[in-house]
Amino acid sequence: MWRQHRYKMLFSLLLLLSGLLLAIDTGDAKPGNEFDWLDILGEGTTLLVACGWLGLIISSRPAGRVTEWLYYGSLLLVYSYFLDLLDEFIRYPDHIRLMSWLESLPAPVGMLVLTYGLIGWHREQRAINRQLRGRELFLRDHQLIDPLTQLYGIEYLQAVLQREIELHQSQRKALSLLILDIDNFAAFNRQHGMASGDAYLSQLSELLSNQLRYSDVVCRYAGDRFIALLPNTALPQANIMAQHLRQQLSQLAIEKQQPQLTLVEMAVQQNSAKSALHAADQAMALAKKTATLSLQPI
């Protein structure tokens, strides 16, 4: 998640640095005997806690509107607490009120912005919980788990994808797919045996489950193909997730006898699960064709 927010982290550092330079330029350093260490401890702890909140948001939240509210609300609190801590080391002239305003105003504004973001986060979590409960009930009614990989099968994928399409169309939210295909898996099975192929499938499915988010749905679409359903995920974010997943999947290819993999990401624009899966098959076929042409000598 950090890569999605690198500009936010840079902006945060520049904002705090500008506050530090402004404080140094405006005031004068206090002598050590005027330091109130109890206040420094309390205000420093408050600043560290607010920085922890900001770090948790950046490290655990995908980019989006709710994340923006949470981030900017927390950043305003960090900025206010940072200047409040600097006040313990720097004395400002009485006739200059700018630093006092910068200490006081961002905190209440940040609280309001953060509260609005928390309300949006709560609504998101309720929607996710409804989806998870629906998936669990559906799974209990239909034994649709692939026995080898312990992933959802194609029937479950079709049902959940159709429901997600209808849900995301009504709420105008993004929906994406990741399609993963094992190249020449039949030849791999013939050369190394079915046991090696089953072991590889189990290892691959475990890696996919561990690397994707809790809200994502990973399914075994065919014998050598997997599809991950990414709710509330636009194509740029899916591209980032695919890039991260390719790095993790490359670890499976360290051994010489491991098959090659093709990973494709796509945004779901179709109105039905059937047409979306057909588009996914076409996207995979195009990716394989492009890869084959690039390997041919010129």
TrEMBL record:
Organism listed in the record: Rheinheimera pacifica
SUPFAM superfamilies: Nucleotide cyclase
One Pfam family from the record: GGDEF
Protein name per Swiss-Prot or TrEMBL: diguanylate cyclase
Membrane-spanning intervals of the chain: 37-57, 69-86, 98-121
Chemical reaction(s) catalysed: 2 GTP = 3',3'-c-di-GMP + 2 diphosphate
Matches recorded under InterPro entries: Diguanylate_Cyclase, GGDEF_dom, Nucleotide_cyclase, Rev_trsase/Diguanyl_cyclase
CDD domains in UniProt: GGDEF (cd01949)
Top enzyme category: transferase
